[in-house]
């Protein structure tokens, strides 16, 4: 139920507004002067505020100024029996949501309240989105072990440059997070970060995905399409699992890196691109080169800077930090109160064999949150760490 505050020194106005709003099933609170209203609005959450302009002690304009200064983002609807165009414009310019003249019109009130409610919903959605963005953007690499500290130092040194980076490591170790950190700390941070999973795209489609295609280039090419190199121009192109890229795509990527130009599939025109390329693989590319599966010249183009991400088994001391991080994240996603790990539970997590690395740890933490109690114990870890067939 939405909650509305009415700030007005006239009891009759407060009563009339209350009756209208309560009939529409709003929860209503009152304040008989500006000072009382400001203190209530600052200390409690309201979805909408009605505020009279002419009041003793503190008038409505002063209340509006104080609310804005206190970062209260609730929509404020100003009301006045002495209103004119100039007053209304002044109120809106200051930051009021709307202005209503007395005597109050029922339909005008209801329309304004509906619009203010929509704004309140947008404000709340913006807050949620902002938290989500900050959570992911600010989710710096978690860990204090020597290997992770070296990676953080390397990222800080390399990010400001346009040097190409090759990130290696097992599946689930956090290679994408390293790539995103390189982007977020670079001068390209405001431009796109475009990701391509080379292992997930069929070999016959990878070239179209990377370089785009012209209309009619093949049967299903009903219109022109830009590729990831073009979409990432000015930003960062992350080629994940590049060890799975086809030989023909490798040749075209090599040309794009050498000359900073591409050609769309079915096209003849050279298109200039300016994307910083960061690649990642879970394969040993040296062995792939020896086996004839990967071009050595492409490897040298990509591996200007090499960053190896250690497996979770090689950084067990980071498990308590990571588990607590995922605890906060997962509880927020599920909308439940944060739970706690006992020391024994964290010790048990450190004993496990993490074949799935960070990804597996997150899944297990989520499972423990759902199936365990408020305090997650060592017994919970022993019971639920391995999937149980029910």
Description:
The chain has 16 helices and 16 strands. With 390 residues, it is an alpha/beta fold. The protein has 3 domains: 133 residues, Rossmann fold (3-Layer(aba) Sandwich), CATH 3.40.50; 165 residues, Rossmann fold; 72 residues, Orthogonal Bundle (Helicase, Ruva Protein, domain 3), CATH 1.10.8.60. The strands form 5 sheets. The chain has a 5-stranded parallel sheet with strand order 2-1-3-4-5, with helices on both faces. A 5-stranded parallel sheet has the order 7-10-13-6-14.
Mean pLDDT: 90
What is the CATH domain class of the largest domain? Alpha Beta
Strand content: 15-25%
Distance between the termini: 40 Å
The computed structural class is alpha/beta
| Total domain units | 3
| Poorly predicted tracts of residues | 134-139
Q: Going across the major beta sheet, what is the strand order?
A: 2-1-3-4-5
Number of DSSP strands?
A: 16
Here the CATH topology of the largest domain equals Rossmann fold
CATH H-level superfamily title of the largest domain = P-loop containing nucleotide triphosphate hydrolases
> Judging by the overall fold, what is the CATH architecture of the largest domain?
3-Layer(aba) Sandwich
What brief labels describe this structure?
390 residues; alpha/beta; Rossmann fold; Helicase, Ruva Protein, domain 3; 3 domains; five-stranded parallel sheet; 16 helices; 16 strands
